[in-house]
Design a protein that fits this description.
Blueprint (H helix, E strand, L loop, with lengths): L1 H23 L18 H35 L5 H40 L1
Helix pairs in contact: 1-2, 2-3
Length: 123
């Protein structure tokens, strides 16, 4: 049962994140021959890259954590009063909540750093 649920969550994750990224990669325009992509890179571009990575990472972590919480809730409901199974389900739920907290802290730290970079750039 655990293997089937893990496989389902894995396929769902691939379907939600990786396949749209591959499909949208077709819209990328290659630079002209002889032009280096990093030639026109500005501080605004670097900050935007960091912000985009932060948003993507936080979204992935939150979705995975919500999946873990749902799995823990399912395990808790199907424990049938068995103390060992209830304990395992409780640990899964706690780990899911910890995952969401870590994602929020990571989001906040990167937001703080990008704000500092914006302030340094404007001065």
């Amino acid at each position: 049962m655990k293997k089937i649920l893990f496989l389902f969550l894995f396929v769902l994750t691939i379907g939600l994140f990786i396949i749209p990224s591959i499909v949208s990669a077709g819209n990328v325009v290659a630079p002209p021959p002889g032009m280096n992509v990093l030639d026109n890179l500005t501080a605004d571009d670097v900050v935007q890259i960091i912000v985009n990575a932060r948003n993507w990472f936080a979204g992935v972590v939150v979705i995975i954590a919500v999946g873990v919480i749902l799995f823990g809730a399912f395990a808790y409901m199907t424990a049938g009063g068995d103390d060992k199974k209830v304990g395992v389900a409780r640990k899964i739920l706690i780990n899911g909540v910890i995952g969401i907290i870590v994602a929020l802290f990571a989001y906040g730290i990167v937001s703080f750093i990008s704000t500092l970079l914006n302030d340094l750039r404007s001065n």
